[in-house]
Amino acid sequence: MVNPTGANGTDNGIFPPDDELKDILWDFERKSLSLELRLQYLQKKHHIKIGLTKLKALNRQFNVPSARKFRAVEQATGAIADIISRDVYQGQGPDTVKKIASLRLNLTIPRDFVRATMKGLVGQKPSDMRRPGRGKGPKIRTALNAIGIFQEIHVDGHEKLGEKALRMGSGIGIDIYGMRDHVGKILEFNVVPNSRLSDAVGHLFLDMVSKFQAISVQVTFDGGSELGWLAAFQTTLREVFAPDLSTDEWRPVVAVKSTSNITIESAWSYDRQFNGRTLRAIIEEGHEFVDYFNNKKTRRQRNRILPSGVAPNVVFDMPANYGLENLAIPVTQAALDELRGLIDTPRKEAFRWVSDEFEAVATEVYIGIGSPKLEALSGWTIFNDMAPVLREVVDLAQL
């Protein structure tokens, strides 16, 4: 007998408008999620329960690209050539180039095509381009382990383009501060005027906690004067929101050697591979890199205890799938606002790069030279074009 309602007897949930559903499905493709994971995300994040056949039909309906249906050979070849030409470190592999093409250019390219094109353009295999061959030998390490997400967060500052690296004068530099969960996901990754300023790091920590409305059981760092507020805030929030958690068994903060804080230290090499050639990506808070890193499948390792061969975002969003627990300690926004009020330097001032007067003048001069694209390969040319004009129109010592 025909069902006059057209319903199949299953509650599939409420579908969003077509434009929103299309964005969701395209985002799945940009993140290179398997069809099975897409079904799980639809159910968990969007409360839509459908099967594989329906998902494939929706992908066809909204023209979601697929590496298996790849056709844009000329466009993809040009994109790959442009990406590797901007890689001043020549350290990007096929997976990185594939992900950059997806995130920045919305191009879904098969990995084999990327690898073959890179070899053809450069004249050697991507793996040969990245072979170190000059290191001091690997440090002996043990496998990382954890019982869940938010068990431990690792924090560290990185002066990748700091004052000593740029050598442009006192106080001129671009520091980075990162916070990464022990299972792999980057929780916060921001450029700051001074990664050694306790007030700035304190604000960043509260930003991260506010984003997740939770703290971890423990925060691990490698020491430094910049951690005063961060350590104090973590300890206070632990005492208030998890008073029964033993400080003997789980200390709220732990200081280790830099070489032992491997979870966050290892992220810097990936940042160099991804952001090494684009100054704008560094200045604009590293959001693009974080998206790439958290959605990139890790290398499958047979002896690794924590999940491997899967993107950090997937592990973090669905920890139970990988035998992990969610150990996040919920906190209130009111408590975070109260703690932020203790910091002497307001957040806006802690993240101020230059004075308002200098920013206005520099913006005018930048527009005056044609607003050229900000990239590492052209950065010094732009600086040299702007500097003489700035010296003519303003007394730099007074700004």
Can you tell me about this structure?
The protein is an alpha/beta fold and 399 residues long. Helices cover 46% and strands 10% of the residues. The protein contains 18 helices and 9 strands. The strands form 3 sheets. It has a 5-stranded mixed beta sheet, with helices on both faces. A two-stranded parallel ribbon has the order 1-8. Helix 4 (73-85) crosses helix 5 (94-105), helix 4 (73-85) packs across helix 6 and helix 9 runs parallel beside helix 10. The chain is globular. The model is unreliable at 1-7, 132-143 and 274-286 (pLDDT under 50).
List the helices and strands and how they pair.
Elements: H1 18-30, H2 35-46, H3 52-61, H4 73-85, H5 94-105, H6 111-122, H7 126-129, E1 148-149, E2 152-161, H8 163-166, E3 174-181, E4 186-192, H9 198-212, E5 214-215, E6 218-221, H10 228-241, E7 253-255, H11 262-275, H12 279-283, H13 287-295, H14 312-317, E8 325-326, E9 329-330, H15 333-340, H16 347-350, H17 356-368, H18 379-393
Helix pairs in contact: 4-5, 4-6, 5-6, 9-10, 9-15, 17-18
